[in-house]
């Protein structure tokens, strides 16, 4: 893993760049942080852990920021399409920021990737469920073995400590970026 400070600075810079480069024709009504994953698999808990921390940071202070997906109310793959449909029914013009764990090469462990492309959820375990997000944030929590069976095992047996570190870096970086907007 890289030094946490380097990961943090890189993430904040990338997130701010993507956030400020969004130029919708109609201004966004709300910013929805869709934190995807389950607390039943260590590596998959990255999204709900980020959601949990964001919920603490944004307690009642930002009316147009919504957090969907926490440890108490996670958004696993099985409910993702329903949650996305509900978002579009409930909000006029939402900006969805999708957050999920990712698998990659060993040298990419601990990195956080930010993109203005839709995230393809479930790709690592051969369940290409849905593409979602105006911005996507992927925290690399485990090694991609290119085989669903081994990838599932990789997610189950990854380090909780490293997943927590990535979730803390991500949630703190998001908060620092948004609190001055």
Give me a quick take on this structure.
By secondary structure, the chain is an alpha/beta fold. It has a single domain (4-178), classed as 3-Layer(aba) Sandwich (Rossmann fold). It has helices at residues 4-20, 46-57, 80-90, 148-156, 160-178, and strands at residues 30-35, 65-68, 94-104, 112-115, 119-121, 130-132, 135-143.
Q: Can you identify the CATH class?
A: Alpha Beta
Low-confidence stretches: none
Q: How far apart lie the N and C ends?
A: 31 Å
Radius of gyration: 15 Å
Number of strands: 7
The major β-sheet equals: 5 strands, mixed
**Shape category:** globular
**Annotation field: number of helices:** 5
How many domains?
1
Helix-strand category? alpha/beta
Overall average residue pLDDT: 90
* H/E series: HEHEHEEEEEHH
* Name given to the CATH architecture: 3-Layer(aba) Sandwich
Helix content: 25-40%
Write up this protein.
The protein is α/β, with parallel strands linked by helices and 181 residues long. It is built from five helices and seven strands. It starts with a helix and ends with a helix.
Top keywords for this entry?
181 residues; alpha/beta; Rossmann fold; two-stranded antiparallel sheet; 38% helix
Q: What's the structural blueprint in terms of helices and strands?
A:
Blueprint: H1 4-20, E1 30-35, H2 46-57, E2 65-68, H3 80-90, E3 94-104, E4 112-115, E5 119-121, E6 130-132, E7 135-143, H4 148-156, H5 160-178
Parallel strand pairs: 1-2, 1-3, 3-7
Antiparallel strand pairs: 4-7, 5-6
Helix pairs in contact: 1-5, 2-5
